[in-house]
Design brief:
221 residues, alpha/beta, Nucleotidyltransferase, domain 5, five-stranded mixed sheet, 47% helix, globular
């Protein structure tokens, strides 16, 4: 196992504040990062998180939630909540996703997560998706692969991921045939086989395949 190098890690995390520092230089002091978890899942809610970190706050091992282990995510989850100026989450249900479509539902969730912050941000950084917060008096910027490039978005990705994973653990207890505690509702081979064998459960998104095709085949809309 590679030994943790704090000096290297400090420099790595420092680089993650590039976009935040650009916003600070423009006179914005409260910068929030926003990200989601569960957008590509076949099951359940999307969870969106928003986080305002202190300026250039060093949090060891901070990174895109997909690039770190579950153990480190859990540790950082508590540290982010403790250190953040403000953080919030917003849940977008499977029903809302089916009603609006995944893009619009996620967009709504992101806007709600920003509004749920106890401290109003002056500037918001998002992972890929573009928010319109002008009516709220908030500037925003979309960054492709933002969860790997921005400290604030990375922090939000961890809050969203851990929150949703804990929900998936509970879904797995309610519907044990689908292995949600392992696949988080994503389209693994085992998950597809379970859907084929048992049919969709109430948590499955009806507008996502293969569930959509199965329901149409059975004459259910």
């Amino acid at each position: 196992m590679q030994k943790f190098d704090e000096n290297f890690d400090r420099e790595r995390v420092k680089k993650l504040y590039e976009f935040e520092n650009e916003a600070y230089a423009e006179g914005f002091n409260l910068v929030a990062g926003v990200d989601e978890a569960g957008r590509g899942s076949l099951v359940g809610s999307v969870i969106v998180a928003a986080v305002i970190l202190p300026k250039n706050f060093y949090l060891p091992k901070l990174n895109d939630s997909k690039k770190i282990s579950a153990k480190i995510r859990e540790e950082l989850f508590d540290e982010i909540k403790s250190a953040a100026i403000s953080f919030s989450t917003a849940e977008v249900s499977a029903e809302k996703i089916d009603e609006l479509n995944i893009y619009q539902a996620t967009l709504q969730g992101m806007e709600n997560a920003v509004k749920n912050l106890s401290v109003k941000p002056e500037f918001v950084l998002t992972d890929a998706m573009k928010l319109n917060l002008e009516n709220e008096g908030i500037k925003s910027r979309s960054i492709i692969h933002g969860d790997a490039l921005s400290a604030s978005i990375a922090a939000a990705s961890i809050i969203a991921k851990v929150t949703r994973d804990r929900m998936a653990d509970e879904w797995g207890k309610i519907y044990p045939d689908y292995g949600f505690e392992h696949n988080r509702g994503y389209g693994t081979k085992a998950h597809f086989l379970a859907i084929k064998k048992f049919g969709p459960c109430p948590l499955h998104r009806k507008t996502f395949n293969p569930v959509k095709t199965m329901l149409l085949k059975d004459g259910i809309k």
